From TrEMBL:
Domain of life of the native organism: Eukaryota
The protein's name in its UniProt record: Galactokinase gal
């Protein structure tokens, strides 16, 4: 199982890049980073961590409903070089963080230990059996994220995972303190573009702090994914684990089928290789995901969760009063999924999903027009949930900040079920594509069709597109793509298009002249916004 493998650690950068098989300018970047580190801090880095960004080929906004997704790591990545400082001359665990990019000024910070209450929610009076626990803490202002916030997010989890505080173990063992460190960051994943620069930052930070403190032993890829997921939620939205899984577990020339239920698992899926490329094109609308979280991303999380509860009730599926059941679990319970989950080929899941695509009509609001456009008010939604108001708030609203006049349970769930099915179909087509009697052109057409259908569903049912993304994907189809869709959370950011290998150049040239925001760009800036990419490998270090 890919998730159980250890994180690759190479003895030198040469060895690492030979194995990655990527372009030599990447190796040069690595060497430059090490040299610049030595210039700034007077010694060589003891460890360099690498984590790539990712493109999601299909399966949008379904990871937090616990359905499988199909992303791939891209060649663009974040590198963090790090070395310990003299522990006698600097505070324990203090960090002196630099970034190669002139826009990001150096920052220093130190963790502190804080006491908090275990086993109670913030609005509850601590019960008699409440336990005080000490936790490491780093100040991160979610409203004003800065570059080092992502470094802190990675560090946060490492501190609490690998340095249990005195109250949790025996008092003040000298070796249970993190080292003071210098670190230097460089990255090539464009920020706010749906290519998960944030996951690349958080994964590389988590990895580098584990490594420099000599805590990497026994940490599998799966553990790094789980740590990074939790870490990233400190700087972002209530997301699923797709980005971190792709950034950690991916292998070259394959996409990664990642499932989250009943447990995290990931298997490489070979793509119809030499005949086609994925081209990324940035809409140039920056998706400020954290800024709009209340009305966009986090609202979708709540809508899909409440949809799952209401659907359970309407289908007569058992659901606990305080259970935050997901749409994936509803599917499992409706179709009597065996305890350990359906078997590899996903036939059980597929037929259950086919049924759910129809049953989802049960969520249509009675007053809605034919498309179920109107949604439900908060009061109505609470009524539908079958929970008393206070309990509804505790379970669905106390831990997440959202705002809406109407909640769209039907449209969101409809997208989730149909998108989950498209992922299974996409994967299936890729798996069968290697057999000799399938024509490549047919395969690419089918994959493209699924990408287009995904875009339409994101745009119409999940409302996570924007006019520029609609336009850019249409222009991509007009320019000859087999299919085109937004990738990542949406509301801006990048599109991904499937293009025949021998058409890539023509395709890129066409889009450069037809997508209006590209017309004023030139040189490197233009090369940065549209480029072909090959699936790359996941996080590693040397
Ligand atoms: P982006 O916005 O591309 O980082 C986000 C979530 C994913 C997933 C996608 C939508 C984070 C860290 N990631 O990706 O988990 O839900 O949106 O499919 O927020
Ligand atoms: Mg992100």
């Amino acid at each position: 199982m890919a998730a159980q493998l250890p994180i690759p650690v190479y003895s030198s950068s040469d060895e690492l890049y030979k194995d990655l098989g990527t372009a030599t300018d990447h190796a040069t970047r690595w060497t430059n980073l090490a040299e610049e580190f030595e210039k700034r801090f007077g010694r060589k880095p003891s460890y360099i961590a690498r984590a790539p960004g990712r493109v999601n080929l299909i399966g949008e906004h379904i990871d937090y409903a616990l359905f499988g997704v199909l992303p791939a790591a891209i060649e663009r990545d974040v590198l963090i070089a790090c070395a310990p400082r003299d522990p006698l001359a600097h505070p324990r665990g203090s960090v002196n963080a630099h970034n190669l990019h002139y826009k990001y000024p150096p920052r220093s910070f130190s963790p502190v230990k804080k006491r908090s209450q275990a086993g109670s929610t913030p609005d509850e009076e601590p019960g008699e059996d409440a336990v005080h626990v000490e936790e490491w803490h780093l100040e991160i202002d979610k409203k004003e994220l800065r570059w080092e916030s992502y470094v802190k997010a990675g560090y946060y989890g490492v501190l609490n995972h690998s340095f249990p505080t005195a109250s949790a173990t025996s008092p003040d063992e000298p070796d249970s303190h993190p080292l003071p460190v210098d670190l230097l960051v460089t990255g090539t994943v464009p920020a706010g573009s749906g290519l998960s620069s944030s996951a690349a930052m958080v994964v590389s930070s988590t990895l580098v702090f584990l490594a420099v403190n000599d805590k990497l032993e026994g940490v599998s890829k799966g553990t790094l994914v789980e740590m990074s997921m939790e870490n990233e939620q400190r700087v972002g939205v209530n997301s699923g684990g797709m980005d971190q899984a792709a950034s950690v577990i991916s292998t070259p020339s394959a996409a990664l089928y990642v499932t989250f239920y009943p447990r995290l698992a990931a298997t490489p899926v070979s793509l119809p290789g030499k005949s086609a490329s994925f081209v990324l094109a940035n809409s140039l609308v920056t998706s400020e995901k954290a800024v709009h979280a209340r009305t966009r991303y986090n609202l979708r999380v709540v809508e899909t969760l409440v949809a799952a509860r209401v659907l359970s009730l309407r289908l007569g599926v058992d659901v606990g009063a305080r259970e935050r059941i997901t749409l994936r679990q509803v599917v499992g319970r409706v179709a009597n999924e065996p305890e350990g989950g359906w078997q590899e080929d996903d036939r059980g899941l597929r037929s259950a999903l086919e049924r759910m695509v129809k049953e989802v009509a049960l969520l249509r609001p009675p007053t809605a027009d034919a498309d179920g456009q109107e949604g439900v008010s908060l009061e109505e939604m609470i009524k539908w949930s079958g929970l008393p108001e206070k309990e509804f708030h505790d379970v669905y609203l106390s831990w997440i900040d959202v705002e809406a006049e109407h909640f769209q349970l039907y449209k969101r769930a409809k997208h989730v079920f149909s998108e989950a099915l498209r992922v299974l179909e996409f994967r299936d087509i890729c798996l069968k594509a290697s057999s000799a009697d399938v024509s490549t052109n047919d395969v690419l057409k089918k994959l493209g069709g699924l990408m287009d259908a995904s875009m339409e569903s994101c745009s119409k049912d999940f409302d996570c597109a924007c006019p520029e993304l609609d336009q850019l994907t249409q222009l991509a189809r007009d320019a000859g793509a087999y299919g085109s869709r937004l990738t990542g959370a949406g509301w801006g950011g990048c599109t991904v298009s499937l293009v025949a290998e021998d058409q890539v150049e023509i395709f890129i040239t066409k889009l450069k002249t037809t997508y209006p925001p590209y017309k004023d760009l030139e040189g490197d800036t233009l090369e940065e916004v549209i480029f072909a990419t090959k699936p790359s490998s996941g996080a590693c270090g040397a």
